[in-house]
Structure formats: structure tokens, C-alpha cells
Design a protein that fits this description.
The protein is mostly helical and 327 residues long. It has 15 helices and no strands.
């Protein structure tokens, strides 16, 4: 009788946790914007919960990884106690995986990320809890058919595939947050040159096609390294925080969600980018934001000089006039 009550309690707790997770998922799948007249009177759960994705995502990574390592150990040292711990890790990985995916869906609705990279991260990220469910099911079947190695092999194979999904989803998530060069920016020269070979080829092609005037060279040699190091992780091709992108002329001149002219060629004082990088480090709107490496005085002057001289981009082939700026 005690065993029945014990298993019933465990099952009930599992159902409660899963219910809470799927309720959160339902919030994530709900329409993004309520009627405008009710916005002022309703607390917005999405903006509040979405940032927790960055915290919760570490739990399913850890739980599933521990389950994988324990199962790998169990291949050589079979143990019923380790099997039980492995099952517990998988369930914890499932619960936290559903929560992480739910918060991730909320965050994805902000429109700050490049669509293709976001879609890949979403596919692989949602695949993790789905694969974890299949892993748990196969583990349950394998336990009841211990004499049939096929089920055990299937269970272990899917568990390994789940780890693969975790790695790939984490890779794309890191690209969205930090940029695709984050992992290799401090790599040895030979590795970085190999991985960035295509970009160097494009740069050589730009040079040979006549984009060699002094102002575009200034951008390529002085300005672009600053933007790549300090701005692209939040306002580059893979993520556009506040709806702003600074790596291309057609986007950089526009003001994102603020609708203020981000860059007014020839007029750095009226350029919102300059206003933001000159804010005190404690200001809420300072760029780069708190936690990111700030621009040095020399880098700030380089940005100002670049805008004053016309804010030339390689794709334009020349400096732009202030009449071409947005706003």
C-alpha cells in the first residue's frame, strides 16, 4: 500500500509540474499584443518572463548532460541506483526544458533577432524537450524488457541525439546573443583565418571593384572593427535590439524602434548613436549597455569623425550626404 501511495504521489507531482510548464507554454503561444485600450490596465507577463529564458536554459543543459554521463558510466558499471538517478535527471531536464522553451518563445516575439538564425534556434531548442520525452519513454520500455538489448540501445541512442540537439540549440542561441564570431574571436590566427576566409575574400573583391576611396577605407580599417567588437552582438545581422541594425547603410541610418535618426551623415551632434555612446556609464540608455565593454575615448572620436565626414559604408562606395539620412 505504501508503495502504491508513493508512486501515486510521485505521479501527481510530475503532473503538477508538467501542468505548470504547459500553462507557461500556453502564455508563450498566446497573441503578442492585447487590444491597445487594455494595455495600460493589464500587467504584461511576456516582457517580465521572457528574460528568464537566459537563466532557465542552463538547467535542461545540465540535467540532460548529467543523465548522459551517468548512462555512459552505467554501460560499464551497471547500477540500479544510477539508473534511478538518471531517470530523475531526465525528468528534471524535461520540466526545465519545457519552461526554457516557453520563455524562449516569449523572447522570440520581441523581433530583435535575425529571422533565419532565430528559426534554427527555435527548431533545435523545441526539439530538446521533445527528444527528452522520447528518451524517457524508451528508458521506461527498456527497463521492462531488460533481456532485449534493442530497446536499451534505442534509448541510449536517442539520449545521445538529445545531447546533440542541446549542443546545436546552444550554438545557435549563443550566435543570437553574442554574434556568430563570439567563439572564435580570440582563436589562434590560423583557425580564425580559416573560419573567416570567405569574409576576407569578399573584402578583397570589394577592393578590386573600386571601393578604395579614402573614406570607405577609413570605415573598413578604423570604424568597422569598433562596430564589430562593440555593437554587432546587439545590433548586427543576427540580432537587432530595439529594432536597430548598424552593419549596413540602409539600416544604420534608420532609428529602429525609437524612430530617431540613428546616424545623420555630416552631423554627429544630431545622430542618436553619438548621443547614446556619450551618456554616462550609469545611464539606462548608454551604449554599449552595462555589462558590455564600453567604447574608449579614442573609439568614440573615431565614430564621431566617421559621421562628420559623411558616414561612408563600403556598399555605398562613397560618403553619404546629410540629406540622405533618415528622420
Amino acid at each position: 500500500m505504501q508503495r502504491i501511495l508513493k508512486h501515486t504521489a510521485r505521479g501527481g507531482l510530475g503532473l503538477i509540474l508538467m501542468g505548470a510548464c504547459f500553462a507557461t507554454a500556453a502564455v508563450a503561444a498566446a497573441p503578442m499584443s492585447p487590444p491597445e485600450e487594455t494595455v495600460k490596465h493589464l500587467f504584461q507577463w511576456r516582457p517580465f518572463l521572457a528574460p528568464f529564458h537566459a537563466v532557465v536554459l542552463h538547467f535542461p543543459i545540465g540535467f540532460v548532460t548529467v543523465a548522459f554521463l551517468l548512462e555512459a558510466y552505467r554501460v560499464f558499471r551497471p547500477s540500479e541506483e544510477i539508473r534511478r538517478v538518471t531517470v530523475m535527471m531526465l525528468w528534471l531536464g524535461l520540466v526545465t526544458g519545457v519552461l526554457s522553451a516557453s520563455f524562449g518563445l516569449m523572447r522570440a516575439g520581441s523581433g530583435e533577432y535575425e529571422s533565419r538564425m532565430l528559426e534554427l534556434h527555435k527548431i533545435y531548442g523545441l526539439g530538446v524537450p521533445v527528444a527528452t520525452v522520447v528518451t524517457i519513454l524508451l528508458q521506461w520500455i527498456a527497463q521492462r524488457h531488460e533481456t532485449r538489448r534493442l530497446w536499451t540501445n534505442c534509448y541510449r541512442g536517442v539520449l545521445a541525439a538529445t545531447i546533440g540537439l542541446v549542443v546545436v540549440a546552444g550554438h545557435y542561441g549563443g550566435n543570437l546573443t553574442h554574434g556568430s564570431k563570439y567563439l572564435v574571436e580570440n582563436a589562434p590566427d590560423f583557425l580564425r583565418e580559416f573560419l573567416e576566409g570567405d569574409e576576407e575574400l569578399l573584402a578583397d573583391m570589394a577592393t578590386t571593384t573600386g571601393v578604395t576611396d579614402e573614406k570607405t577605407r577609413f570605415y573598413t580599417e578604423k570604424v568597422q572593427p569598433i562596430l564589430s567588437a562593440k555593437c554587432h552582438s546587439c545590433h548586427g545581422p543576427e540580432k537587432q535590439k530595439g529594432g536597430y541594425r548598424i552593419d549596413k547603410a540602409e539600416f544604420a541610418l534608420k532609428g529602429g524602434d525609437s524612430e530617431s535618426a540613428a546616424i545623420k551623415p555630416g552631423d554627429p551632434i544630431e545622430s542618436n548613436v553619438v548621443k547614446l555612446i556619450l551618456l554616462p556609464s550609469t545611464h539606462d540608455d548608454v551604449m554599449p549597455p552595462e555589462g558590455k565593454q564600453p567604447l574608449t575615448s579614442e573609439e568614440i572620436m573615431t565614430i564621431i569623425d566617421w559621421i562628420r565626414s559623411g558616414a561612408a559604408f563600403p556598399e555605398t562606395g562613397q560618403a553619404l550626404s546629410s540629406t540622405n539620412s533618415a528622420g
